Amino acid sequence: MFMSNNACSVPTSFWLTGIPGLESLHLWLSIPFSSLYLVAVVGNVTILAAVKLERSLHQPMYFFLCMLAVIDLVLSTSTMPKMLAIFWFGAHNIDLDACLAQMFFIHCFATVEFLAMAFDRYVAICDPLHHTSVLTHAVVGHLGLAALLRGVLYIGPLPLMIRLRLPLYRTQIIAHSYCEHMALVTLAYGDTAVNNLYGMGIGFLVLILDSLAITASYVMIFRAVMGLATPETRLKTPGTCSSHICAILVFYIPIAVSSLTHRFGHRVPPHIHILLANFYLLFPPILNPVVYAVRTKQIRERLLHVLKARAQSK
Q1: Interaxial angle between packed helices 26-53 and 60-89, expressed in degrees from 0 to 180 and rounded to the nearest 10
Q2: What is the tens place of the pLDDT at every residue in 248-265?
């Protein structure tokens, strides 16, 4: 039994509405969402399997690509199973600890993305003779661990601040399909200024620092490219970065649109905002495998080889 909006409570669980305003369409909405989630899982697992099975892909760029696939799987799996449970079984209830854990995984892994891969492209183009010696397996592992620790340090305080500073809530009903930080903070009773400022500050800090670091990397890359000997080489070299640039655009544009809509788009209907918030967690895991499978010759050839082998065995 949930408290009314006129009373405050110390909740042990919350009630996720799904997509507010479209409750009658939940069953129909589950069809495209479940299909997209299946495509995301199959695509990223395929990338992981291709890199594992093909020894020629045991290189830094593909290890970073595997990290990206794992991140995409975590992001989509953190939200889609619960949302589909709401659509199919009416499983709206979520424990407080599970809610905070979901919030942590979503925001943490959303910050662990493309910096390491930008560094890999810089070394591959600007210092190709020392690429494998600079980016050894140990260095790749340390870069991945550093990116993960950065996400934990940035996002770890968010659930702790909610747990310690905001015990009372006006309602336990979250008008969302998953536990998003601002959606939860807006329900709290008391001073939420610190939570709001920290959440907004971390969002802009990650976006600005990542943008500056990636931009600096590509400025150095294109300066090195312009110094190459032949026009043919200059035209060919940027192609090695195109997949990474596409992945950046696929990930950051939906995040920026969703974040700005949530904070400043007060006239945007709630269901539009919730759909955007779900798309930015679901579309990159779908599109990244497509982008890399299409743009990366070695992965494409390995997948075609596996498909031909299976066709011949039947």
Answers
A1: 160
A2: 776 777 777 766 766 666
Strand residue runs (E) in 109-259: 173-174
Instruction: Give the whole-angstrom CA distance, residue 54 versus residue 61.
Output: 14
CA 228 to chain centre: 35
DSSP state of 175: S
User: End-to-end CA distance of the chain, in Å?
Assistant: 56
Amino acid making up residue 211: S
Contact between 222 and 267 under an 8 Å Cβ cutoff? The reply is no
Indicate the residue type of 100.
Answer: L
Q: Give the Cα separation of 265 and 274 in Å (integer).
A: 12
- SS3 category, 221: helix
Encode pLDDT of 152-169 as tens digits: 999 999 999 999 888 889
- Measured CA to CA, the distance from residue 234 to residue 301 in angstroms comes to 25
Residue 198 and residue 161 in contact, taking contact as beta carbons nearer than 8 Å: yes
The length of the chain, given as a count of residues: 314
Contact 86, 92 (CB under 8 A): yes
Distance CA 18, CA 174 (A): 9
Round to whole Å and give the CA distance between 146 and 116. Answer: 9
pTM over 0.70: yes
